[in-house]
Amino acid sequence: MAAAFREFGQWLINAVGPHKAAQTIHRYLQFFLDINDRWPACANYQALLELFGAEGLRRARLPMRWLKETHGIVADATLRQADSARRGSAAIIASLPEGSTGSKALVAFANTLEARHAQGKTSLHSIRLALSPAASLLRRCDKDGRKLPSQTELDAFLAASPGQLAAITGFVNFLNRAFGGELVPRIDELQVEKMRRSALEGKLMDLLQEDLRPDDVLKRWIPCAMEYFHNVPVRTLKTLRDRDVTRDESGAVVTLNGIKYWVPLGTATYPEAEFISNTRYNERACTS
């Protein structure tokens, strides 16, 4: 490795110039030290990937260029993606205390998914995507992983993250099979709506504490107010422009697809927060 590092140093001078090479070569010393005991067994991309991971090799971009040009070691995108997925899954599993009830359930679920991967029925990327909501549910029940979710806790999880229904169903079915549970992945629409409005209310209250600039009112306050007061999804307001908003003495009229909506303005001139729970503002919406 001493000889290899000298060779890399000479290559670096030619690649970036002597001045920059002198300033930066120390950054790459650890890379060579780490593979010192594994060369030449480490003289292929897969072995380097197992040692450093995709992120580690990305940081060693210049040594990897040198290895490619002098030793023919070429990066493999498929191997890199697989390694990233494996390390991502390992990190998710490690988010729960090792040996805890939740961790054991998550490891068992991961092993089931790995078996499906070996049969060609799922991908490593899909495994990581399945483990993420499973770990989130377990941590929500108990950050120390001491118990498995109850129906109440599962309902609360889905109320807060209704978009996770499909993603969490596989884990719930696994828990039922492996641990004799009777969990039902379901969404309580009323609870979801209650939590959605509570989140919007909190966002509006936070915005009221800020000194909003005119651009902030258009891009942050009005979209949130439109969703809270009129159930207009934020995604439909991406094309909203100043010309679509007409301000009056107490709020603003927003014109969207030919329909006019009134909303209060959260500005220094309208600081009161009571409007959030006052339904009369909904009644002031006008359509045309």
Could you walk me through the main structural features you see in this protein, from its secondary elements to its overall organization?
This protein is mainly α and 288 residues long. Helices cover 60% and strands 5% of the residues. A three-stranded antiparallel sheet has the order 1-2-3, with helices on one face. A hairpin with a 3-residue loop joins β1 and β2. The longest helix has 20 residues, at 189-208. Residues 268-288 have low confidence and may be disordered.
Keywords:
288 residues; mainly alpha; 13 helices; 60% helix; flat
Question: Brief overview, please?
Answer:
The chain is mainly alpha-helical. Helices cover 60% and strands 5% of the residues.
